[in-house]
């Protein structure tokens, strides 16, 4: 990402922040504070991931006073968030004085400063939100928080009256009389390996509380993730086993290994062979589909076969056997398909 | 009988004119590495010089007619592989100009653009690829910012006009593929020299392995076949000399008994 228009010291700090922040931080609303443009761009808004959402903080440098640290403007709902110690204030010493030190000891040539400042402020923000949640007069909520607070990485957020308590794995919790509504949300990294739609949640027994349920959930999730990862590997090896027979695929999904497309021929008839593997592979056999590279209907659509799912299959075959049996099936099927394409329209 | 291409030279010194699979094997065992690939932004640039109106072997069909068909087949195929690839369209006469600038994954939009393709009536004289590369490089920066990669597919039709370009040595921001349709070589043309110039350009500017195919046959199905080979994703390609597709689907026993018209080898001379 290029940040043209920023003075170098701001650009360096912003780059460092984006590249080293533990999650994906976004930048928007880039502006210049000065009336004349000569100073360059010196203000922007950061979208900082928090509690499965984002908080927006404005970062205000002053290009004409490069030695000074930036000001930060927090969201309108956070009027009570005061990360700096008040004059004469006591307690909360550590957190607040750390922030104060970063600001009073500001070195504008040090690219790591902005990251340090934002991380400190975010920690303080978490603590501030935890206090706010603690003030909510709800016995159930108080009990749950007390029993799970020892776990790491809890983020809490109060927004317009509803409370959220978030684990690193990501659960949204709404206060209801019996079982809480549990919603699993995954980070983008996890999503690439594992579909959250396939997760089976362990059942919530009456009288359970979060502290009892969560270990079950974590254990179950870990098992399911491991199983999903091993299934990806089987699909990957299957696609690789197709290559000696079908040639190098035109394109294959390298992360999930759910699909691959090959280019094949039957005589001078050239066609695509699509392979679609579900998450139940190899229990469930791949869906195949053939598509002509030479025939197009008058409406402008290419000729395709129906989805082929009925052909000899056993999940107990090894991958090269699977590939050979599919090859044999398609040798026959491609003749049918070729006939079908040529019948409605002669080959060019 | 055409000679085999020299190593890594894509038949540069002698054009290949083989219909049927390339005989060189897959170049080692195929592995599907778990590295992410990007969705593509593909600019299809069609040479609309008067030579695009030369007739194919099929009577009444010009090169441009076949090119239009080939593009629609290509776009449909590419989207059925992955519906997130996108397309834009440009033309080349003396230099490049946009036909449809906005990238879109909508087939209707491609149909519209293709319909608008029309040839110049007078010869363009020269073919300056620099403007085309500049256009592609500019778009490539935008694509990259969206985690996409840019590919430029040039479909070129002139048998005597060698394209030229000026480009910095190390600027490889997009992948270039070329499809070259030409007349049979004769005393009044130089398709081999044109082909060599296209290979040079491809190797000069291409970010990933670019592919080039040529045909002097005039058969639409040859054009469709080669365009299908360009469907392969640049980040998952093997060197062109190792290409082993399309593979023939036939019974093992039939391989030696050549009942089918599987492989024709026609000399280019």
Notable features of this structure?
heterodimer; A: 348 residues; alpha+beta; Ubiquitin Conjugating Enzyme; 2 domains; 5-stranded antiparallel beta sheet; 4-stranded antiparallel beta sheet; 13 strands; 21% strand; extended; B: alpha/beta; Rossmann fold; 6-stranded mixed beta sheet; 26% helix; DNA repair (chain B); ubl conjugation pathway (chain B); DNA damage (chain B); cell cycle (chain B)
Blueprint (SSEs and pairs):
The complex is a heterodimer of chains A (348) and B (269).
Chain A: H1 8-20, E1 26-31, E2 43-50, E3 53-60, E4 71-73, H2 93-104, H3 113-134, H4 139-148, E5 155-159, E6 162-166, E7 171-174, E8 181-184, H5 188-193, H6 210-246, E9 251-252, E10 259-266, E11 269-276, E12 287-296, E13 302-304, H7 319-344
Antiparallel strand pairs in A: 1-2, 2-3, 3-4, 5-6, 7-8, 9-10, 10-11, 11-12, 12-13
Helix pairs in contact in A: 1-3, 2-3, 6-7
Chain B: E1 18-19, E2 39-47, H1 63-81, E3 86-92, E4 96-104, H2 107-115, H3 130-145, E5 148-156, E6 175-181, H4 191-205, E7 212-215, H5 220-229, E8 247-248, E9 264-265
Parallel strand pairs in B: 2-3, 2-5, 5-6, 6-7
Antiparallel strand pairs in B: 1-9, 3-4
Helix pairs in contact in B: 1-2, 1-5
Short characterization:
In chain A, 36% of the residues lie in helices and 21% in strands.
Describe this structure in words.
The complex is a heterodimer of chains A (348) and B (269). Chain A is built from 7 helices and 13 strands. By secondary structure, chain A is of the alpha+beta class. Chain A folds into 2 domains: 8-83 and 93-178, no CATH class; 234-344, Ubiquitin Conjugating Enzyme, CATH 3.10.110. Chain A has a 5-stranded antiparallel β-sheet with strand order 9-10-11-12-13. Chain A is extended. With 269 residues, chain B is of the alpha/beta class. Chain B has one domain (38-245): von Willebrand factor, type A domain (Rossmann fold). Chain B is built from 5 helices and 9 strands, in the order ββαββααββαβαββ. In chain B, α1 packs parallel to α5. The N and C termini of chain B lie close together (9 Å). β10 (259-266) of chain A pairs parallel with β8 (247-248) of chain B, so a sheet runs across the interface.
């Amino acid at each position: 990402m290029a940040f043209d228009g920023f003075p170098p010291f701001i650009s360096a700090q912003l780059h460092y922040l984006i590249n080293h922040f533990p999650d994906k931080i976004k930048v928007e609303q880039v502006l210049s504070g000065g009336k004349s443009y000569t100073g360059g761009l010196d203000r922007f808004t950061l979208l900082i991931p928090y509690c499965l959402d984002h908080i927006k903080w404005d970062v205000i440098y002053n290009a004409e006073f490069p030695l000074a640290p930036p000001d930060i403007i927090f969201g309108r709902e956070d009027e009570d968030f005061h990360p700096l110690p008040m004059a004469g204030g006591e307690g909360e010493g550590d957190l607040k004085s750390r922030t104060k030190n970063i600001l009073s000891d500001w070195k504008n040539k040090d690219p790591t400063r902005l990251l340090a400042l934002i991380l400190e402020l975010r920690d303080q923000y978490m603590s501030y939100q935890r206090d706010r949640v603690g003030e909510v007069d709800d016995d159930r909520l108080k009990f749950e928080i007390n029993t799970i607070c020892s776990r790491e990485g809890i983020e809490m957020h109060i927004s317009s009256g509803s409370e959220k308590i978030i684990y690193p794995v990501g659960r949204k919790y709404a206060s209801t009389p019996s079982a809480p509504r549990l919603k699993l949300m995954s980070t983008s990294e996890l999503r690439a390996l594992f579909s959250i739609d396939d997760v089976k949640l362990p059942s919530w027994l009456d009288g359970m509380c979060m502290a009892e349920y969560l270990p079950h959930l974590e254990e179950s999730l870990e098992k399911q993730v491991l199983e999903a990862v091993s299934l990806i590997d089987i699909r990957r090896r299957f696609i690789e086993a197709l290559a000696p027979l079908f040639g190098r695929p035109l394109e294959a999904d390298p992360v999930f290994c759910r699909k691959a497309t090959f280019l094949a021929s039957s005589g001078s008839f050239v066609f695509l062979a699509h392979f679609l593997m579900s998450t139940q592979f190899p229990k469930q056999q791949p869906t195949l589909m053939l598509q002509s590279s030479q025939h197009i209907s008058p409406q402008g659509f290419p000729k395709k076969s129906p989805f082929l799912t009925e052909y000899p299959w056993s999940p107990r075959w090894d991958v090269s056997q699977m590939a050979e049996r599919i090859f044999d099936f398609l040798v026959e099927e491609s003749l049918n398909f070729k006939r079908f394409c040529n019948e409605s329209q002669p080959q060019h | 009988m055409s000679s085999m291409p020299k190593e890594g030279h894509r038949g540069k010194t002698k054009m290949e004119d083989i219909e049927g699979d390339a005989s060189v094997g897959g170049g080692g065992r195929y592995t599907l590495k778990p590295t992410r690939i990007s969705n593509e932004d593909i600019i299809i640039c069609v040479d609309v010089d008067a030579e695009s109106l030369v007739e194919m072997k099929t009577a009444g069909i010009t090169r441009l007619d076949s090119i239009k068909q080939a593009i629609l087949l290509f776009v449909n195929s590419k989207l059925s592989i992955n519906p997130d690839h996108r397309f834009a369209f440009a033309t080349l006469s003396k230099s490049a100009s946009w036909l449809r600038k906005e990238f879109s994954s909508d087939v209707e939009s491609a149909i519209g653009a293709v319909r608008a393709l029309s040839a110049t009536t007078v010869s363009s004289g020269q073919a300056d690829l620099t403007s085309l590369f500049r256009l592609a490089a500019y778009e490539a920066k935008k694509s990259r910012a969206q985690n996409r990669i840019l590919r430029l597919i040039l479909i070129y039709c002139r048998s005597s006009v060698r394209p030229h370009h000026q480009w910095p040595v190390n600027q490889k921001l997009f992948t270039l593929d070329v499809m070259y349709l030409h007349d049979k070589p004769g005393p009044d043309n130089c398709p081999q020299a044109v082909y060599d110039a296209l290979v040079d350009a491809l190797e000069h500017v291409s970010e990933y392995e670019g592919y080039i195919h040529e045909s002097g046959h005039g058969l639409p199905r040859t054009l469709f076949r080669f365009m299908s080979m360009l469907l392969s994703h640049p980040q998952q390609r093997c060197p062109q000399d190792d290409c082993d597709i399309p593979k023939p689907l036939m019974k093992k026993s039939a391989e030696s008994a050549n009942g089918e018209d599987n492989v024709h080898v026609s000399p280019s001379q």
